[in-house]
Write a structure and sequence with these properties.
The protein is 8% helix and 51% strand. The protein has a single domain, classed as Domain of unknown function DUF4426 (Immunoglobulin-like, Sandwich). With 134 residues, the chain is mostly beta strands. The structure holds copper (II) ion. Copper (II) ion (CU) binds next to loops.
């Protein structure tokens, strides 16, 4: 009942009114055998249709040592619809284990799989997938 009231109130005012019940996407972590990605900042936040920029921190899974000079590719994909994004996101290495991914374009609401491929310091190339619903 509380949720229903919250949704009703949210529709009447703005979707932001119910934020405390939603999981926060910023700060989410995903990891593979060798790597760990932290989604530090999302612009806009939460993500919206159109162009988005995400800032991620890359570290070693296990030791938490930050990893510089990584190759990072991102492919946004909608598994329920079988299509991706019209644009290939670009990654800028900001140093100190921080990377900015620009041109992340979401075309529609639904489930998105963010398929990161990461290779650091001639290490293994590994895939990390971040799932969320837009
Ligand atoms: Cu779709």
């Amino acid at each position: 009942m509380k949720n229903l009231l919250c949704v009703y109130f949210g529709l009447a005012v703005s979707f932001g009114a119910c934020d405390p019940s939603l999981p926060k996407l910023e700060g989410s972590m995903i990891n593979s055998d060798s790597y760990k990605l932290e989604l530090q900042e999302m612009l806009p936040s939460p993500p919206e249709r159109g162009s988005n920029t995400w800032t991620i921190k890359v570290s070693s899974n296990g030791s938490s040592e930050k990893l510089e000079g990584c190759e990072i590719d991102l492919v946004p994909f909608m598994p329920e619809h079988g299509h991706g994004s019209p644009k290939q996101p670009a990654t800028n290495d900001l140093g100190d284990g921080i990377y900015q991914v620009t041109d992340i374009v979401f075309t529609m609401p639904g489930l998105w799989n963010m398929e990161f491929t990461v290779a650091c310091n001639n290490g293994d190339r590994e895939q990390l997938v971040y799932e969320f619903r837009l």
